[in-house]
Design goal:
With 314 residues, the chain is mainly alpha-helical. The chain folds into 2 domains: 112 residues, Orthogonal Bundle (DNA polymerase, domain 1); 170 residues, Intergrase catalytic core (hpI Integrase, Chain A), CATH 1.10.443.10. It contains 13 helices and 3 strands; from the N terminus they run H-H-H-H-H-H-H-H-E-E-E-H-H-H-H-H. The chain has a 3-stranded antiparallel sheet with strand order 1-2-3. The protein is globular, with a radius of gyration of 24 Å.
Length: 314
Amino acid sequence: MLGILEDKKEMVSKNNRLTGNSTIGDLVQFYYKSPNFLRLSRAAQKDYESCLKIIREDLGSKRLCFVSAKLIEQAYEVWLKRGTYRANKIVSILSILFNKGLHEGVRMINPVPLMDNRVPNPPRKVLWTPDQVNTFLETAYSQWKWRSIGLIVQMGYEWGQRVGDLRLLTWDALDLDKKRMDLEQSKRGADVHLPISDQLLHILVQQKESFGFQQYVAPQVHAADGAYKPYPKETLFKHVNDIKREAGLPGELTAMDMRRTVITEMVEAGVDVTQIKQVSGHTGINSLTPYIRHTYTGASEALAQRSAFKKDKE
């Protein structure tokens, strides 16, 4: 169990219930033991644990009855030094904690919605170039230990799906004879039905020869406790970084950027929005707005179409 649960010195209260006099540290300990936390995947638990540790270190001694927006705003300014994404993740988890306290009947408030200094996450605009993708895949497939990582990234570039779904992809989602993949997205619940290219099919056939005896398409290449398991997110991203360094690729690239790259490429290629949604799983046009960027290629094509239209009317 997590190390925080081994600390017997900190008590929530004498009857193991939260009160207004309990501290934020007490609330963190209480949350660790709650079904809410225990229902999370192991990877999600580890992600939460890192944020909860920061909350406990910086605010653990503060009593729940005295929490205020000003207190959280001051802590947030400190957390921003860790990066905007990280600070916002910590605050979001803190809000979950406070709501848990309210649910348990503690006389307190959740001050997070009252904060007026939260900074929006900056939109990420990093895209892979085709040459960078090829270099990454060549490097990944050059070593057995990176084989499944290469396949996850290649599937991401072929299909524009989230890394989280692809690392958990199972063989029953694939029909190699019909060259088709059917997936229910975990985030949106959308069903997408995508073709398998000949190039990807070749890799998948080889992969099935090696790993077709178990359910995951791209598992860790070595068994753990007698089973082949999916890569935890942290391990997958570590391997991606290792491959990038080996390949001499920019550190700013991430596996998660692959989905944005694919959708942006379709937008710039002039693919109909309805067809893009059938690939991406988005339900509304507005959801695709973040993927539309201003480029020389796109502007040139737009002006060329305008000129051709004017010429036809003359």
